[in-house]
Amino acid sequence: MQKRQQPGRRTVLGAAALGAGAAVFGGAGQASAAGPGTAGRELPVPLIVGHRGASGYRPEHTFGSYQLALDMGADVIEQDLVPTKDGHLVCRHENDITATTDVSAHPEFADRRTTKTVDGQQLTGWFTEDFTLAELKTLRAKERIPGTRQHNTLYDGRWQVPTFEEVLQWAEREGRKRGRRVWLHIETKHPTYFRKLGLGLEERLAKALRAHGRHRRNSPNFLQSFEPSSIRRLGELVDCPKVVLLGTLKDRPWDFTEAGDPRTVADLVTPEGLKWIAGFAEGIGPDLTVIIPRDKDGKLGTPTSVVKDAHAAGLVLHPYTVRNENTFLPADYRRGTDPDAYGDSLGVFKAYLGTGIDGLFSDNPDTALLAAAEFRTG
User: Fold this and answer.
1) What residues have CB less than 8 Å from 113, skipping those under 6 apart?
2) Max CA-CA distance within the chain?
3) Residue 378 has what pLDDT?
4) Would the pTM of this model clear 0.85, i.e. be above it?
5) Helix pair angle (164-178, 201-211), 10° resolution
6) Range with the lowest mean pLDDT among 35-49, 112-126, 334-348, 362-376?
7) Could you check whether the bond before residue 98 is cis, i.e. omega within 30 degrees of 0?
8) Residue 78 in contact with residue 92, Cβ under 8 Å?
9) Cis-peptide into 46, omega within 30 deg
10) Interatomic CA distance for residues 340 and 349, integer angstroms
11) Does the pLDDT value for residue 364 go beyond 50?
12) Which of 375, 348, 376 is nearest to 362 (CA)?
């Protein structure tokens, strides 16, 4: 069995990260830090984030996916936010909706197909910022990777693209029904790109959170972004716990590229870089290879010191993303020759959870929760 986390460690770090008033990250059954905050008693450690809902079983970012993740027991449900032409926030992993909606089957929108450069990448398709909310609501969601998840295509066309406002209302309803708060992990997508279009995400997100009383330090949501400047801007608008997302070691945040900042993720996960992040955020969400790199054969290697170093800086870690299918797993955890079949994902979950991370994103919350149960205390 993997080494279990020691009781009380995360309570102390939660207090250090958020101040004595709120131990948001405290583990189940642990004593909360001094002060009025009670959110620390809500979330276990390690927690499981339903990645775009339960996207291993339903098309991502639909109410079918969100509801299933919640019903499975996911501790937190993720939303990615992009804007419409008329300024509404909707939940899509990308503003390019070509693969996640049936827009290509709508002849009335054929002339909206275009080529754009988003964060340095040239894309051809249909984009949320070219549609009003009313127009977007005429579309239906579909499975993004039907070749891998053919079973999810059963639900193509079942749900609309949800607005963030609808998600907040859903979370309130489900919270009342369950007698507990529903936690969300909310990402600003391509914030620099959208700000240049006059569609700044942070102000819209903060306004929505304030309208629902979710803007406080102990509110049941995390705010996340791959752009540190977006997290800093959010910190000026709301008091929610914030997580800086990090790609692979060679990646460079797009706002750094725009600003001429030469630092890469490798620089940000040094003790100095982590101390800098801790000045305006409470956690990091790194790519899993930052926690345990893969060798030249695609097998899991030796864990890095990032977990220890981040904890020393007072930061929690919510890395991403474990999926059950062979094609997404390290080579030594694949089973059989079918890339779409399930491999030893339980083994992968345990390998990562054994490093002492505080949470984990997964498309398969049920599998993740089964593994996490072996590491939870209290």
Assistant:
1) 104, 124, 125, 126
2) 60
3) 60
4) yes
5) 30
6) 35-49
7) no
8) no
9) yes
10) 18
11) yes
12) 348
| Per-residue three-class SS string for 125-193 | ECEHHHCCHHHHCCCCECCCCCCCCHHHHHHCCCCCCCEHHHHHHHHHHHHHHHCCCCEEEEEECCHHH
Which tokens belong to 47? Answer: 């927690």
Burial label for 339, CB within 10 Å (0-12, 13-18, 19+), is middle
Question: pLDDT tens digits, residue range 222-249?
Answer: 999 999 999 999 999 999 999 999 999 9
User: What 8-state DSSP symbol labels residue 28?
Assistant: T
Q: Which amino acid is residue 137, in one-letter code? A: K
pLDDT, position 1: 39
Please name every residue paired with 50 in a beta bridge, in sequence order, or none if there are none. Answer: 77, 362
Compute how many other C-beta atoms are within 10 angstroms of the C-beta atom of residue 289. Answer: 16
Model pLDDT for residues 35-58, shown as the tens digit of each residue: 223 334 589 999 999 999 999 999
